[in-house]
Amino acid sequence: MATITVTGGAGFLGSHLCERLLNEGHDVICVDNFFSGRKANIAHLIGNPAFELIRHDIVQPLYLECDRIYHLACPASPVAYQFNPIKTIKTSTVGMVNMLGLAKRCPARLLHTSTSEVYGDPDVHPQTEDYWGNVNPLGPRSCYDEGKRVAESLCMNYHLAHDVEVRIVRIFNTYGPRMAPDDGRVISNFILQALRSEPLTIYGDGTQTRSFCFVSDLIEGFLRMMEQNDDVGPVNLGNPVENTMLELAQAVIEVTGSKSKLIHEPLPKDDPRRRCPDISKARRLLNWEPQVDLKTGLHQTVEYYRTTLE
Ligand code: NAD
Ligand code: UDP
Predict the structure, then answer these.
(1) pLDDT for 87-119, tens place per residue?
(2) Domains of the chain
(3) Residue 244 Cβ contacting ligand 2 at under 6 Å
(4) Is residue 142 within 6 Å of ligand 1 at its C-beta?
(5) pTM surpassing 0.85?
(6) Active-site residue numbers?
(7) How far apart, in Å, are the Cα atoms of 230 and each of 19, 23, 103, 210, 235?
(8) Does the beta carbon of 95 lie inside 6 Å of ligand 1?
(9) Which end of the chain has less Cβ packing within 10 Å, N or C?
């Protein structure tokens, strides 16, 4: 049994991770400022003697003792991270320094949740970890993309200079129950639109692609990456099955049984054309592979959103 800090623990991914770690018998300290996280995501964990919740903004230093830090705190959807871009950058830079400082002092091993966004609008396809990316440093996504790139560099340099044990994962689009309904990401938008019989909003012509990983698969990847001793990463974690947004809309309509139509809206600036992980490294290093296909994952996600609408 270990004492494990989860920053961003009240968010979508963080709440599933807290739950999984508690189920494995660990003590969990959930740290969150509730910017994009929600109390409802962790309400069922309150009262568990192994669970502790701290309302804290990681841009401020944090002092506690633990063995492991899963570092997830950062708004993740374009709507959330563009709400206050400077704050997003501070969270990924100053916040990252604070969490690495914590890892160094404890000492604790830290897993950093980076993103496929470090590849920007990629001109290598599918994306391998050794691809350096194509990011617009001044565009509307840069507060997130560049913040995450600096965060990776900080992790690597704390590792090299101070022997901090770091693990870096690059997460590709992940979905599932507890994604905030209003966060503007495509899966939450499409499902809620379908359940409300509203048109599904396709940005652009809908031929852009993403590869969608179900949350339980991703969390399994986090644990395997944290506990292996061979590689600091980065390692891509995502589902290598690539879909266009038109295909995704069709799948959501099928799973919900909705009669919604599709409408087109303007494509946001710098929206990546294609995104698909090469997961050879995760397969080799972690013996990891997503198990949940899109339809199965969508069914579970739709069930969750139905209950929120009741
Ligand atoms: P989320 O917005 O649901 O969770 C992020 C959590 O961090 C929220 O609970 C939020 O309140 C908290 N937070 C934000 N800024 C904070 C701060 N300064 N101090 C303390 N807490 C703060 O998003 P998510 O989808 O669960 O993403 C979790 C992590 O995974 C993020 O770092 C994100 O960049 C990364 N990621 C997610 C995806 C995905 O598809 N879900 C893809 C790539 C990377
Ligand atoms: N998208 C869309 N309709 C929506 C929301 C998003 O067509 O209502 C598109 C968006 O333009 C992008 C893709 O879906 O091409 C994924 O968007 P999301 O915000 O979920 O993730 P990201 O762009 O960060 O991968």
Answers:
(1) 999 999 999 999 999 999 999 999 999 999 999
(2) 3-173+214-239+278-286 (3.40.50.720), 186-208+242-271+293-309 (3.90.25.10)
(3) no
(4) no
(5) yes
(6) 144
(7) 26, 26, 19, 30, 12
(8) yes
(9) C
